[in-house]
Amino acid sequence: MRVAVAIAVLISSAPGVAADRPAPAGSLCAAGETVYFHCAAATGRSINVCGAGGDALQYRFGRGKVVELAYPADASHGADRFRYAHYFRYQTDRHELRFENDGVEYVVFDHQEEGRRRAGVRFSTHGKERDVVCTGPVRGRLAALEDTVPCDTDSALNLGQCR
Fold it and tell me: Which of the residue ranges 8-22, 111-125, 148-162 has the most confident prediction, judged by mean pLDDT?
């Protein structure tokens, strides 16, 4: 049911913070957690990836302090539930964190090209794809997850290679 609500909300919607620093306003990350990704979308909701050291990692989506979708439910070993992809070349730096939940694929993305940044979450279900993009400042440090989260062998960003 939570997934259906989150999907309905998404369909109807048209640099990093260390753990010892306070989470940005509107973030769903708790005090003491590392904010790997945070931004606000046009819907008034926030997109977050939060960690608490080691393998603890969780995606959170919601409004205010209300979490509408948290994945995985138990964040303690969440890093194994995600896949990381990265592509870099001159004036281009793309990071993505992918997961699946109840048949829906989610990709948190943070792309920078030629001085422009586009970030948010993309979700795909039943052959349809939708992006919910960040409308304000983006706090992203997905690169810090490269050695913690398994490589996404299915992502074109990795050019078919994982270390």
Answer: 111-125
